[in-house]
Sequence to fold (457 residues):
Amino acid sequence: MDKHVKVSFLGASNVVTGSKFLIETSEKNIMIDCGMFQGLKELRELNWEDLPVDVSGIDVVLLTHGHLDHVGYLPRLVKQGFNGKIIGTEPTLAIAEIILNDSAKIHEEEAKKANDEKYTKHNPALPFYTVAEAEKTIRMFEVEMPGKWITLSEHISYRFQYNGHILGATFIELDINSKRFVFSGDIGRTDDYLLEDPKRPEWADFLFIESTYGNKLHPEEDVDQILADIIVETLHKNGNLVIPSFAVERLQTLMFILWKLYQKNKIPNIPIFVDSPMGNNVLEVFRRFPKWHKLSESDYNAMCNHVTIIESYKDTWKTIDDKRSKIIIAGSGMVTGGRVLTYLDHLIEDASTTVLLVGYQAEGTRGRQLFDGAYEIKFSGKYHPVKATIKHLDSLSAHADQNELLHWMSDIKNIPEKVYLIHGEPAALDAFRVKIKDTYHWNVCIPKISDVEDINI
Fold:
């Protein structure tokens, strides 16, 4: 085998989203993740550009997990000529299928609405990809088990390893000519409500590690008490609590916590509405794969029965018209789209409303604007004054913080030749770089989008 390996950083480099890393060798060309950029406009615009590589020459895509910023670019990759296998764990591919189908429908609906209401600069506005393109991509999915080495070619093999974060998530160990490349994907928390602790790598010659919270420690918050206080305050104001939520994991975690709070008599029986078609589908994935999470069948059924799951857009409007104080959990988690915008259209200008942000809010998203104290936000072509109370819970994040990231690396027995910090904003990346150098004395670098690394193995 030619001992030359070329790594192209096509996303999630000096930014959090758009995860795409291409490893080119003389035997196989492998892409790790294939996600969409989210957040800042200049990043979102990158989604519309073809990748600066020979897409038809990529043999396989390995997915760490099913989030949009790790799988959402797949239909565009196929459109550009990719015709290989897309491989992940069974829950990852089940979630990716839900996310791609849901995203395609949203892309089509938003393009149609923009054209009908004429609030687009494009003539016509086009969907990023269609349902048909998503379905073509899904037919290329292939399941592999975690914990098992899979041979790709004579000198290349890979293994998925359980990583917490969301259902099905893994880190990827890729052995190329006896050198180990480790891609962390997104690393989960220890002592998670629903998931087991992440496994940890024991060897890494080249380590590619996420750094979303590389400069932060999650606060030691009493989540139960904070949520209970917010709910009681909402009832006193005769208002509504709106929780924008990621459909995968966060929504199910919130359902579980709220059910437990009621069970412990910490909150009254306030109506709870879950309005996320994608989230409802992910609930079914939890039911299908009980070995991937900690919920018992009875707990799963009880938490589902404790909430009202919205099935149709008609029921969304019934919920808005419902005059009772209530909790509304709706996608999307960074307020970038989805059903939550329908609720905010009617409730964000009401001082009795509380909006609770749970988890990371990327730069350029409406969630970040609200987190930063914006007095107005724009969606559906108009500005909305923010009169609602905005609150934030950081400890429900599904990402490891700085200490947990260092702990995840602590079982590596060798000294990596190089550590690449990915999936982070500049401040987080630089702080984590310094921390790793001070803690482990490893060689650390921070690649940027479009950087190419030539590695001799």
About this structure: The mean pLDDT is 95. Residues 90-117 form the longest helix (28 residues). The chain is about 30% helix and 20% strand.
